[in-house]
Write a structure and sequence with these properties.
The chain is an all-alpha fold. It contains 12 helices and no strands. The two termini are about 30 Å apart. It binds a DNA duplex (13 and 12 nucleotides) through α3, α6, α9, α10 and α12.
DNA sequence: GACCAGGCACATC
DNA sequence: GATGTGCATGGT
């Protein structure tokens, strides 16, 4: 994941992992429940997870609308459509050639392992499904965990650029730590709850977008109380 | 026109 | 294991 320049909050103390649940409560109070993932079906969530790689969601929405309007937002249609034609439809999401190829890889996987049925994928055990997803070209840890959590309702905490940016600034972990190290930390500190992981990640994105940009607005951030 | 946005694979050291 | 690069659109 691409990260902005490091920024350490001046005179901050180190956030303890035991405080993570309180952090969630503070964010939830500030932003309200986020009702993620923004998608109507598990399949739409999966497609969105691939399309949003390093891309603003507003651009992904345009691509999703194109797919819907052309009747392509289902496994069978994506299996049949030519990669070039798919790339044209998802053009607004950026990296359209790469992402068309990744969607095709996922669809082939969905058919070879689950007969094209998302319900069968969702019925898979979490760890087994995660292993299999990571073996699909174009699905890395964040995309796999987004699919596991938001499409398959399995308790895997999603680590993304916002998670590292927000919590590295609070010195929870150095941002250079691996994806797995960050995920272990959250999953050890929090109960394995799908609803908690779901909304906590969405809250992190909310606070990251609003207060934790390259020029952060720490003074007004709901996490400010955790620094003193 | 520069910078940024809910990554990933691949090459190189 | 760490670091660098290509992939691309649309909003600010």
């Amino acid at each position: 994941m691409k990260l902005s320049k490091p920024f350490i909050y001046p005179q901050s103390r180190k956030l303890r992992r035991e405080e993570l649940h309180s952090v969630y409560q503070a964010l939830r109070k500030a932003f309200g429940h986020q009702h993620w993932w923004p998608g109507e079906t598990p399949f739409e969530v999966i497609v969105g997870a691939i399309l949003t790689q390093n891309t603003a969601w507003t651009n992904v929405e345009k691509a999703i609308i194109n797919l819907k309007e052309n009747g392509k937002l289902n496994p069978e249609s994506l299996r049949r459509i030519a990669e070039r034609g798919l790339a044209k439809l998802i053009r607004p999401a950026g990296y359209f050639n790469v992402k068309a190829n990744r969607l095709k890889h996922f669809i082939r996987f969905l058919y070879s392992e689950y007969q094209g049925r998302v319900e069968r994928l969702r019925a898979e055990r979490g760890d087994a499904l995660r292993q299999k997803l990571l073996a699909v070209k174009g699905i890395g840890p964040e995309t796999a965990d987004s699919i596991l959590l938001y499409a398959a309702q399995k308790p895997y905490f999603v680590i993304d650029a916002y998670t590292k940016r927000v919590f590295a600034r609070h010195r929870l972990l150095p941002r250079r730590h691996s994806y797995d190290a960050w995920q272990r930390l959250f999953q050890k500190a929090l109960p394995a709850s799908v609803s908690l992981y779901n909304d906590f990640h969405a809250q992190i994105v909310a606070v990251g977008k609003r207060y934790c940009r390259t020029q952060p607005d720490c003074a007004n951030c709901p996490l400010h109380p955790f620094l003193s």
